[in-house]
Design goal:
The protein is globular. It is an alpha/beta fold. The longest helix has 24 residues. The strands form five sheets. Strands 3-9-10-8-7-4-6-5 form an eight-stranded mixed β-sheet. Strands 14-11-15-16-18-17-22 form a seven-stranded mixed β-sheet, sandwiched between helices. E1 component of the 2-oxoglutarate dehydrogenase (OGDH) complex which catalyzes the decarboxylation of 2-oxoglutarate, the first step in the conversion of 2-oxoglutarate to succinyl-CoA and CO(2).
Length: 955
């Protein structure tokens, strides 16, 4: 319908909008807003004629109708309408007014403690917009789904709506597609009208928690003048919020909670929530530090864990360690939670709760937030819903404001992508904050989905205690200087209401300061109830070259190969996969040499049947990027998308450990962070992340630098995470050739990580088993092959798995006369096979080729033994595919020089230094590759015959 008059004719004589029909009409209307085609043509025409409601899911050119309805009470058309039709028209508008408050009430809610800005005029929240005036205020209308009575006067309806949606709480949830979730939230908010109604004891407890938060900050400010602590002042209500949240978690049966947060307010949370002894904190301010950490970290990055008392018993709470890369801790927490849930059999996710604290600018501005939200409901990464708390100080980092930090109305808007409800709340109303905390947790426990609390506050001091905020924010800080503090305001409110006496509020300050002076615990602690991961048996001082038996008897390998190659009945494999399975049957019989995929699957199978769980994730890792792993098979005749997947490694034996393989979302930073968090919480599981190509890890560099490479020396956090990074120069261009070996070697120090380049399936088998069988846990970076995955030259006999171990250095394989060898060529990875083929083709017998399979920690003894094996060799050449400014050359040359005999000469064969990792043109690649191989075998170490010496000044 295009005209209001036609719409009104449709309305005349109708009685559909009254009584029990009103909720039905409202359901249809919400259905229409999501998809106009989902309702019948009659109802579509009916709703098309209504003034459009902002927030709807579709656009309509309804300005003409909108204006006509606004003017309708004054027109002769309106006065000519029958009384019943007029009332029905108003009933429609009342329902729209209710929905308008649910959609838009947040825009005029009293959220800013500083009250800096005038509230916007939202026409849709004004009854006059719908032609409703004072004369209608005492008219009774059906309320639809509004909680509070089936029929109410318009005056009562408005009061309820404004108390609920326009007070200290601003709720956003009408975009949620699930009607049941929306109705649940409406019931919780509207049933109490956004007013908590706590008793006197609870309100005094809130004041005590506010006192603790404020007094600690002021105590530190005077005791340690000028030292950075990233004060919570202005956001003090976070402490009663977290206290209430954790107490309620325990009451609802949770056993653990894991918290991730940046540095703002961290010291306050450590002392006032987790119960870290104040004397420990003061000692850190005074320079005391852990002697066993070679690096350590600043106090506002430190993690902590404790068991706190709750009405439901002891709750173990862990605060994750976090560097200054703010939101990068988010997926780390999620991974840690998932591991803990797995350990205690928490399949629903209600016994271990993730809690993430964010800054307003970081939540809107850092992409890892979106990546973490996106994984929240995926099969491999869900944790049963996360409680997100934004400490919204309305200023972002240092000198920014909302015009510079985001392009949306609210910092929390990114959470709408996963239908997470968002509750904005004024931090100056602690009781409203606690009410929203209850609703948020209950929603999470009911629906196992993420929920966001946007705690709107301010930052009393600068970004840190040495910063002067007036320099860039003079307007805002005029308001802040006039603000007495949340604790003071709340204490005055309670005193006026007779809940506390004025001297009682001051006594709380004195009592807290006394506890600080005495260094006593502020939080009631409790005995541990949950089983913790056992890290005590892992040693930091185990020699890297200590032998570990990774061989597996032949009969056992063949027993495990049977379920790995058994196809279920009535299960049709793709023809290419069928051929791979048939080949693996032959490999198990010894008729074919093992390829990479079979050796890797056998490594997992042996560990699983020895009680070691395995978790493997990555983009397309079930199949394998290069069609090599096939850990999961897919029935080609399946009828539904969710049917017909079979994972042989899950069907080895009844008592095997869990095997999880996940095709991850298209994310590197969040997924790698998740797996790091998982590995730090579960030392007994082999946790692997595979990049689709090695350079995909570039997108996760923060996780690699700040957590994986340095977590142990900064925080003492051991981790056995394995990164699989496909690497090799096959002419695929600059983007997918190099896994950036040089970056990992640059991070190597303090025996922090392992960097390995296995060149055969047997090496991979032993390497993976060594990772779990050794009494140590260190991250393992594995540069895996691409073209070698199915190369016959790189295959291994089954017998190589039944004997030996991972070899950090592999000696020459041909029977050369050691006394006649004049040159040793050292290399790693795929280039070895090209060197071997070239030497054999050229008939060269005086140049030995050795493979260095472990670049760090460097295998000093094994390499020295190879130098000694050729007593007359006067030349050592390092050969690599990568350009001279990349790859292993710059790091490894120091090790080579250290172990060369006196008089030996060191040189290299490599690509010339380059800004890109590899050539983009196949012809150029082939030319360069040929030149590198030729240079390794050049008769003498003449600079002019070494391609790596072109543009040498750029090295």
């Amino acid at each position: 319908m295009n005209e209001p008059a036609n719409f009104l004719k449709l309305m005349q004589g109708s009685s559909l909008l009254f009584g029990a029909n009103a909720p039905f009409i409202e359901e249809l209307y919400e259905q229409y807003l999501a998809d106009p085609k989902s309702v019948t043509a009659e109802w579509k025409a009916y709703f098309d004629a209504l003034p459009p409601l902002p927030g709807g899911a579709h656009d309509q050119a309804h300005r003409k109708i909108q204006q006509a309805f606004a003017a309708m009470p004054k027109t002769t058309v309106s006065s000519a309408i029958a009384p019943d039709a007029e009332l029905e028209r108003k009933q429609v508008y009342v329902l729209q007014l209710i929905n308008a408050h649910r959609f838009l009430g947040v825009r005029v809610a009293n959220l800013d403690p500083l009250n800096r800005h005038a509230k916007p005029v939202i026409a849709e929240l004004d009854p006059a917009y719908y032609g409703l005036g004072e004369a209608d205020m005492d008219t009774t209308f059906d309320t639809g789904s509004l909680v509070g009575g089936a029929r109410m006067t318009l005056r009562e309806i408005l009061k309820l709506l404004r108390q609920t949606y326009c007070g200290s709480i601003g709720a956003e949830y009408m975009y949620i597609s699930d009607v049941g979730q929306k109705r649940w939230i409406q019931n919780r908010l509207e049933s109490v009208r956004g007013l908590p109604g706590y008793d006197a004891a609870q309100r005094r407890h809130i004041l005590e928690r506010l006192t603790a938060a404020e007094t600690l900050e002021r105590y530190l400010h005077t005791k340690y003048v000028g030292q950075k602590r990233f004060s919570l002042e202005g956001g003090d209500t976070l402490v009663p919020l977290l206290d209430h949240l954790l107490q309620r978690c325990g009451k609802q049966g949770a056993l653990e909670a894991v918290i991730g947060m940046a540095h703002r307010g961290r010291l306050n949370v450590l002392v006032n929530i987790l119960g870290k002894q104040p004397k420990m904190l003061f000692a850190e301010f005074e320079g005391v530090h852990a002697e066993h950490l070679t690096s350590g970290d600043v106090k506002y990055h430190q993690g902590f864990s404790a068991n706190i008392a709750t009405p439901g018993g002891s709750l173990h709470v862990a605060l994750a360690f976090n560097p200054s890369h703010l939101e990068s801790v988010d997926p780390v927490v999620e991974g840690s939670v998932r591991a803990r849930q797995h350990r205690c059999g928490d399949h629903d996710g209600n016994r271990v709760i993730p809690i993430l604290l964010h800054g307003d600018a970081a939540f809107a501005g850092q992409g890892v937030v979106m990546e973490t939200l996106n994984m929240s409901q995926t099969r491999g990464y869900r944790t049963g819903g996360t409680i997100h708390i934004i400490i919204n100080n309305q200023i972002g980092f240092t000198a920014s404001d909302a015009r510079d930090t985001r392009s949306s109305a609210y910092c929390s808007d990114v959470a709408k992508m996963i239908d997470a409800p968002i509750f904005h709340v004024n931090a100056d109303d602690p009781e409203a904050v606690l009410l929203i905390t209850e609703i948020a947790l209950d929603y999470r426990m009911q629906f196992n989905r993420d929920v966001v609390i946007d705690l709107v506050c301010f930052r009393k001091l600068g970004h840190n205690e040495q910063d002067e905020p007036l320099v860039t924010q003079p307007f805002m800080y005029r308001f802040i200087r006039q603000h007495p503090g949340t604790r003071t305001r709340y204490a005055q409110q309670l005193a006026e209401q007779g809940v506390v006496q004025p001297d009682e509020a001051e006594a709380m300050i004195a009592d807290y300061r006394k506890a600080l002076d005495e260094g006593r615990n502020i939080v009631e602690l409790a005995p541990a109830l949950v089983e913790r991961a056992n890290w005590t048996r892992f040693k930091r001082d185990v020699p890297w070259d200590a032998a570990v038996d990774t061989a597996v008897p032949l009969e056992r390998l063949r027993q495990l190969a049977a379920p790995l190659t058994t196809v279920p009945e009535n299960f049709t494999l793709h023809a290419r996969v069928q051929k791979i399975v048939e080949d693996r049957v032959a490999m198990a019989k010894g008729e074919l040499s093992l390829d990479w995929g079979m050796a890797e699957n056998l490594a997992y199978a042996t560990l699983l049947t020895e009680g070691c769980p395995v978790r493997l994730t990555g983009q397309d890792c079930r199949r394998g990027t290069f069609f090599h792993r096939h850990a999961t098979w897919h029935d080609q005749n399946r009828k539904e998308w969710h049917e017909g997947a079979y994972t042989p490694l899950q069907h080895l034996s009844p008592d095997q450990a869990d095997f999880v393989v996940v095709d991850s979302l298209l994310s590197e930073e969040a997924v790698l962070g998740f797996e790091y968090g998982y590995a730090t919480a579960e030392p007994d599981s082999l946790v692997l992340w595979e990049a689709q190509f090695g350079d995909f890890a570039n997108g996760a560099q923060v996780v690699i630098d700040q957590f994986i490479a340095s977590g142990e020396v900064k925080w003492g956090r051991m981790c056995g995470l394995v990164m699989l990074l496909p690497h090799g120069y096959e002419g695929q261009g600059a983007e997918h050739s190099s896994g950036r070996i040089e970056r990992y070697l640059q991070l190597c120090a303090d025996y922090n990580i392992q960097v390995c380049i296995p060149s055969s399936p047997a090496q991979m088998f032993h390497l993976l088993r060594r990772q779990m069988l050794r009494p140590m846990r260190k991250p393992l970076i594995v540069f895996t092959p691409k073209s070698l995955l199915r190369s016959k030259d790189a295959a291994s006999p089954l017998s190589d798995l039944t004997q030996g171990r991972f070899q950090p250095v592999i000696p020459e394989v041909d029977a050369l006369d050691a006394g006649k060898v004049r040159r040793i060529i050292a290399c790693s990875g795929k280039v070895y096979y090209e060197l071997l083929a070239a030497r054999r083709a050229k008939g060269i017998s005086d140049m030995a080729i050795i493979r260095i399979e472990q670049l760090y920690p460097f295998p000093h003894d094994d390499f020295t033994a190879q130098i000694a094996a050729y007593p007359n060799a006067g030349e050592l050449v390092w050969c690599q595919e990568e350009p001279g400014n990349q790859g292993a050359w710059h790091r490894i040359q120091h090790y080579l020089l250290r172990h060369m005999r006196k008089g030996m000469r060191l040189d290299y064969a490599l690509r010339a230094s380059s800004a890109a990792p590899a050539a983009g043109y196949l012809a150029v690649h082939n030319e360069q590759q040929k030149a590198v191989i030729e240079a390794a075998f050049r008769p003498d170490l003449d600079v002019k015959n070494n391609p790596g010496d072109r543009r040498n000044e750029h090295l």
